[in-house]
Amino acid sequence: MPRPVDLERSAARREAITVAAADLFARHGFENTTATDIARAAGLSSGTVFYYFTDKRAVFRSIFERDIPVLRELVDRALACDDPVAAVLTMVDELAADALDPNASGILVELLRQIDRDPELLRVVTGNDAILLDGFTTLIERGIEAGAVDPGLDAREAAAWIVHLVDAAYLGADPARDPRPMLRRLVTRFLAPPTADPPTGEQG
């Protein structure tokens, strides 16, 4: 049975490889990054990458696999909130925070290039999206029941649009410009129940 220290060392090395690979893939692309490049950037010997990962695609998948527990924890916290709209906005804020990372748009572009070439990657990303969709859908349903969200919205469809908005923040990421205030504004207006009079400046 592996000792705790061995498990910790293994987890730390896997994380170091994943972090180094994410930076290289974002800046140079998947095809132009070698296992040797990743090992060097992680401060490990060249053979270490394939000790912890079966191949380079497994390394790329690990970037998104490590999101799974983070997303589950985010959704669990949101579902524990008494205000469903505030919970949706908090989720949007936290999901969009990494768009300020200089590598954000690069890694998303590379994901779009690779996802059709790796069924396992598609499975991981689809699973991540499902966690978010389920969370947003439940919160929107609660908001509709509470009268805080437009009852004309289909909760699942609205949840998908919110995920698309967050994804768009990554595609157009600019480290010098925080997308979160605009995302909050868009999502707030999108979810708001209809009123008799449109807000000032939005008539006609």
From TrEMBL:
Coiled coil: none
Source organism, top-level taxon: Bacteria
Domain HTH tetR-type: 11-71
A GO MF term: DNA-binding transcription factor activity
Pfam families: TetR_N (PF00440)
Gene3D superfamilies in the cross-refs: Tetracycline Repressor, domain 2
DNA-binding region(s) in UniProt: 34-53
Keywords: DNA-binding, Transcription, Transcription regulation
PANTHER family: HTH-TYPE TRANSCRIPTIONAL REGULATOR BETI, HTH-TYPE TRANSCRIPTIONAL REGULATOR RUTR
Official protein name in the record: TetR family transcriptional regulator
Organism, as annotated: Prauserella shujinwangii
